[in-house]
From TrEMBL, chain B:
Its EC number is 1.1.3.15. It comes from Sphingomonas jinjuensis. InterPro entries: FAD-bd_oxidored_4_C, FAD-bd_PCMH, FAD-bd_PCMH-like_sf, FAD-bd_PCMH_sub2, FAD-linked_Oxase-like_C, FAD-linked_OxidoTrans_Type4, Oxid_FAD_bind_N, Vanillyl_alc_oxidase_C-sub2. The keyword Oxidoreductase applies. This is Glycolate oxidase. GO terms for molecular function: (S)-2-hydroxy-acid oxidase activity; FAD binding. Gene3D superfamilies: 3.30.465.10, 3.30.70.2740, Vanillyl-alcohol Oxidase, Chain A, domain 4. Residues 50-228 form the FAD-binding PCMH-type domain. It comes from the Bacteria. SUPFAM superfamilies: FAD-binding/transporter-associated domain-like, FAD-linked oxidases, C-terminal domain. Pfam families: FAD-oxidase_C, FAD_binding_4.
Amino acid sequence: MDVLHPASADDVADMVASAAARGERLTIRGGGSKDGVGAPSETAVLDMALLSGVIDYDPAELVLTVGAATPLAEVRALLAGSGQMLAFDPFDHGPLFGKPSGKATIGGVLAAGVAGSQRLSMGGGRDHLLGFTAVSGRGELFVAGAKVVKNVTGYDLPKLAVNSWGRLFAMTQVTLKVVPAPRARVTWVAEGLDFADAQRLMAAAMGSTAEVAAAAYLPGRRRALLRVQGFGPSVEARGQMLAALGLRPGNDGECDALRTLAPLPLDRPLWRINAPPSAAPAMMAGLSGDWLADWAGGLVWLASDQPAGEVRAAAEAAGGHAMLVRGPEAMRRAVAALHPPAAGVAALEARIAAAFDPAGVFASPRMTGAVA
Amino acid sequence: MTIAMPLPDGATIARRDAIVAALRDIVPGEGVIDDPIAMRAYDCDGLTAYRQTPLVVALPETTAQVSAILRWCFDNGVKVVPRGSGTSLSGGALPMADAVLVVMSKFDRVLDVDYGDRVAVVQPGVTNLAVTRAVEEAGFYYAPDPSSQIACSIGGNVAENAGGVHCLKYGLTTNNVLGAEIVLMDGEVLRIGGRQLDPAGLDLIGVVVGSEGLLGMVTEVTVRILPKPETARALLIGFATIEDAGRCVADVIAAGIIPAGMELMDRPAIHAAEAFVRVGYPLDVEALLIVEVDGPPAECDHLIAEIDTIAVASGAVSCRASQDEGERLGFWAGRKAAFPAAGRLSPDYICMDGTIPRRRLPEVLNRIGEMSVRYGLRVANVFHAGDGNLHPLIMYDAEIDGQLEAAEAFGSDILRLCVEVGGVLSGEHGIGIEKRDLMPVMFSETDLMHQQRLKCAFDPALLLNPGKVFPQLHRCAELGRMHVHRGQVPFPDLPRF
Ligand SMILES: Cc1cc2nc3c(=O)[nH]c(=O)nc-3n(C[C@H](O)[C@H](O)[C@H](O)COP(=O)(O)OP(=O)(O)OC[C@H]3O[C@@H](n4cnc5c(N)ncnc54)[C@H](O)[C@@H]3O)c2cc1C
Ligand SMILES: Cc1cc2nc3c(=O)[nH]c(=O)nc-3n(C[C@H](O)[C@H](O)[C@H](O)COP(=O)(O)OP(=O)(O)OC[C@H]3O[C@@H](n4cnc5c(N)ncnc54)[C@H](O)[C@@H]3O)c2cc1C
């Protein structure tokens, strides 16, 4: 398998243009931390690693511009130095695939639609990617969005970049909105709950003025974890609201389970199910396996041997969708990683992909199962 | 008037009777308006300098009717312009002489509210404020709050990605919408997004928001609703220079505070507002900053004290914290009246809407001041200071020959300046026709063609809201071709309008 190493945006453009001219396909790689997602790829790899580094960071503007392959860890360390963070709370998934952490890149995280527990209250990558430069499947370098936090000039193409899984264009540079990191955080706990009770409790807390930043449920321990964060006096006042709902202060470390997914066995297929929170308890009643719930119940990580069709049917019945994150090779060849959309939406997505990439340089059967 | 629209198609206009008859088959009763006098109510949006009587107006009531209208127009090559409440400030809903104006005002129902999942499902003709009204008894609200919120529709908000004074903390429309039902130009009805947070595949709702009615008609919207904060308090801070005010804003953010709102007014805006509503704004300052914080009382008190300290350190000459709700609303009254206040000073005004990196504010305001002298037109500046979104109000008199053109040229110069310092043409009002011809200032031909190809994926015949946003119409077949040479302008012979 060939690996191309562009050193500049122009290199990317040349490599993509010549692949398009030869009718070849390329797989974009950031840190490669999710090479194990989807059907194994047999195309050449466009390794973005050299397009790394900080281009502009002005903390007072809340804006950061970096090369797309800048390691996530580097971005987080830089922001932490100014008391800021990425609100969408992405985490490194190397360990999910039995690989070391530290390789994930900011471009890969965005393209994979990755977001952590705070996504519930602060939005996802989609809400924080302000602009980018990229090379489309036409081998053309283009600019989308902007480098200021508020912009409605032209179509909001950054929204298409997030969760695109490298299917449309290769980002070379990204501009993100960043936010101040909270001064204080406390995790509150409620115990002895089944999922339905926990989901109702989380919904009540989310509907209160406690401004809950993150809310998760660990079925093994029958525990709900709710985090409040911000300025000290406020965190204290809002904590009292959670106390009134019957929670008690807990151990912040427990929230790590939602980053490492350590409680879930590594040797079973891993699903990521996104559904309306109120529908999640009934959905999980019909699914077997080990699981964790985040986003007040709206996100379920499920490690299960249950057939893909059953998992997807349950997710759909709940009004959601299920992504196959990890699985044995034979399964990944047979099951599309992304939940298959309704026919009309699938056709529109295919037209959008063709608009950016008419020759199918970035076509990614391993994600959609669409191409043989 | 300097903005040209595509030439109307005479053949379509000649078929008007047949088109009206076909629409009447789809939308019964009074849902089709073809009387020229009655149609005048729809001849412009908030950009009132531009007016055009539509070919015919349709007011459908169901998604099936919208679908049938679009399908018929698609089959017959007739253009369509969507309209909500008609408050757009950029001409996005400007009718065309050869297009059916589809008005969504009869889609006025709140369909479902789910407090557990904190979502409301509404029809697009529901006004922005009506969403909050529908949920406020339960202690919730819909966060995006454009100043036009009593009138503007959710469909229009989605199309323009509308914002408000509170969007610094709570986001624009795009951050508060989860899903929608849309109808493509060929009549196909699609559900995009949903009630869950993330899409399964491409973020289609993300790109439909802000698309200015060019990608599809929105027939249903699922929005997030939020619990209303317990309290809100505001500070009214006066500065002797714009530089001091700008430093204060930067220092507030550097202190890790994201206020619920942070608004700046310059001297002309302060004086205009005070003369209009008499709320006790200091008149001896160059800049007035309103900072609002919300949350539990303990949080508000803590932040008010912190911001007060920062303000003093950055050289504030006056600083008042609201002690009760009446005083807080008083602080806002002047700012909220800034537009009508400008309207009182001058027969006409246009409101510009660029965004700049905040650090460039003093320089940008100085240069706007110089332009004001050069054009001989007054300007007052209100500014969403937290996110760098500038609203210069350029005052002119349309009765005086050449003043509209001068005001437009002045406005264009301001927007060019915004782009020059690293900002953008529009922070929240959209491009429409108003800023259409300035798009090449911000985007290269290649950038624009990548955007226009997205349009082709939704509306390959370019029948939906043509002439808006993009300065040049490329046929999709031409856009679809692969080019051998990068960066070369591909269609030098295409007409620009
Ligand atoms: C299915 C799945 C779900 C995940 N969910 C989460 C989660 O919820 N939270 C979390 O924190 N982490 C999650 N992760 C981890 C996440 O994938 C990695 O953290 C992230 O992808 C790492 O980036 P990378 O650089 O290693 O990407 P890679 O593995 O190299 O690439 C990821 C995807 O992005 C594309 N891509 C990479 N760089 C670019 C670029 N510059 N331009 C365009 N496309 C590009 C690739 O083609 C590929 O499709 C998930 C991973 C997988 C596989
Ligand atoms: C006094 C005043 C103050 C304002 N203040 C603000 C402000 O603070 N913040 C802000 O962001 N804006 C503001 N605006 C601008 C305007 O109110 C917003 O852009 C608003 O979102 C327009 O909504 P509307 O329903 O009036 O849409 P319209 O003006 O009818 O249409 C706007 C655009 O949306 C399209 N459209 C409308 N409905 C649909 C639909 N159902 N499907 C597809 N396309 C559709 C139209 O084709 C057009 O392109 C203000 C306007 C005025 C007059």
